[in-house]
Amino acid sequence: MTRKVVTLIALVAVAGLFLVLLRLGTPNELGTVSRHYVERGIAENRAANLVTSVVVNYRGLDTLGEVTVLFLSVTGAAFVLRRRERKPVDARASRASEIVQTGARLLVAPIMLFGVYIFVHGHLTPGGGFQGGAVVASGVLLLLLADRERELPHGLMAWLESLSGFAFIVAGLAGLWVAGSFLANRGVLPLGEWNRLLSAGIIPVIYTLIGLKVGSELAALLDVMMRGEAVAAGHGAARSGGGRRGGRTRGGKNRKKGGRR
Amino acid sequence: MIWLDALVCLLMIVVAVTATAVKNLVSAVIMVGVVSLLVSYLFLRMGAPDVAMTEAAIGAALTTVIFLIALRRTGEDR
Amino acid sequence: MADTILLIALVLAAGAVLLAVLRLLRGPTAADRAVALDVMTLVFVPGMVALAVFSGRKIYLDVALVYGVLSFLGVMSLARYFDRGI
Amino acid sequence: MVAWDVIGALVTLAGSVFLLLGAIGVARMPDLYNRMQAGTKATTLGNLLTLTGLGILMPSWLPKILLIAVFVLVTNPISSHALARAAHAAGIPLAKGSVKDALDHDREAR
Predict the structure, then answer these.
(1) Domain count of chain C?
(2) C84: Cβ contacts below 8 Å, ≥ 6 apart
């Protein structure tokens, strides 16, 4: 109890410190690299959203590494959780109601379209491949929430994922061939006019590829986790036998009341 | 509007500390979702719409559901 | 005139957030906390739009749109969890 | 054009009044279902009014703001419905003074 109060007070003090830093801590001048990005970034890449040209062009190799990390973690999760035959994890699981299923059918297309909008317009508005991919995967999540047994097109997802990763590398190699450095933007595609959809050279192409890759990877992760076998299946079933109805919430309430006072 | 920022910061810290202290794990997951909402607002307030959108896209649904599936699969939800 | 009214509206919305956090911290069951999360999202989406209007930057609207589109999925996955559906 | 500013601000104020009322309901109501009633109906109305008021303040942004409002209007009832049903199925009790449980009656009949 005392320890919690002391922790709370200390954290509130840190929060006050952060508030002071919020006003004082903003640096007044930029470093050399940042000044180059701010002054020349728009002219060099012609992307209306400067953050995008930093993420995809100036720090493009970094982004490739991030995509690889995501791919590796999804692969690991799939290896741990894979299962061969289909069976429901819990026999008492109930189906989603009619309203949820109808709503899911109605909303999946707008949500996925919105995700595609986010990553296609990554060089014009905030957002980009990762955010758009997460929104697309949320659309898939809505489908899986409405019907757990739904079959996703696994072959299409695997092809999308590997082809977009391959095309990302090919785009980088094209930069190496044309302009002499990996993932370079100059000269690969015409830069176009500022603040148009078809502008900024290769940046929107790469962001679209990243969006497709991240979206299919996260959707595959959700699919694998939803179907995955319960790791402690026998254990959990033994503990949850009897008095299941309402036991979880009410028991939690009592324990928590004891714990927080 | 510094008082509003201060309020949001304070609430965020209180909710985050409670998330570590609460016994019911599903409640902790919900509180993590609230912290994500508040932090997204703060990012937007500080003028970083890209970061705020990342936090929104990941924190609004995906982290919650991944935590919940993990709780269900490991049988740790009680 | 308009600024004063907007300030009052902002104070009321902040009060709504405070009350929702109160329920989030107290709420006996996890479902009560899910309701509090829902209310907080519904307050913060107009809050983000208000931030966009006051700072005059239209691109902030995209963030509010993401939250408005996706926030119901969090509550719905909680509901499916209580239903043993996931 | 000062008049439109005042009208927009007043609509926003009305919306935030509803937001506050909904939050008071969430904090004060006796059981989960009453809280959910206050916390979803009143705050959805408050949300829509606030967004409309802000759209009136900034007329050129009105389409995008109304898009947000339409999404909230369509999605929020679905999740609240799912949550209410799930809570009822999980056996969260009604408040002491409740006189009728129609959903329970419905399930018994089936």
Answers:
(1) 1
(2) A90, A92, A93, A94, B72
